[in-house]
Design a protein that fits this description.
126 residues, 4 helices, elongated
């Protein structure tokens, strides 16, 4: 490591603060790649799904950080996550209407739903 490179104060940098920038970079690449998709059949459905896929992944990861919020803010965060989950589930259903939803899209939705259910359960135990 060069002498003038920033040095971590107490060992390696924590993974969590670095996760969000890395996710943002991946989501940006995903959105840029979707621009090239054709406007017919599956291409149109994938294009229409990009925003919801990114939003659902963001909800999933944000709910994983729920306990980092002050206790009083957690119920509102979970409520907002539920609203986003419902909105983007509806958008995905509309995008893939009449077509089979790809397994990867179904998995993103299932992950967000599981994270939301786990967050609700966690709040009910507090």
């Amino acid at each position: 490591m060069p002498q003038n490179a920033p040095q971590p104060a107490n060992g390696p940098l924590p993974a969590a603060p670095l996760s969000w920038p890395i996710l943002l970079a991946r989501w940006t690449q995903f959105a840029q790649a979707a621009i090239a998709l054709p406007e017919v059949k599956e291409g149109a459905a994938w294009k229409a799904s990009v925003e919801s896929i990114i939003a659902l992944q963001a909800v999933t990861f944000a709910l994983g950080d729920l306990m980092l919020l002050p206790t009083a803010e957690r119920p509102l965060a979970v409520d907002r996550a539920g609203v986003l989950l419902a909105r983007h589930e509806e958008a995905l259903q509309a995008a893939w209407q009449g077509q089979d939803v790809p397994a990867a899209v179904a998995e993103v939705l299932a992950d967000a739903t599981a994270a939301y259910q786990a967050a609700k359960a966690l709040l009910s135990r507090q």
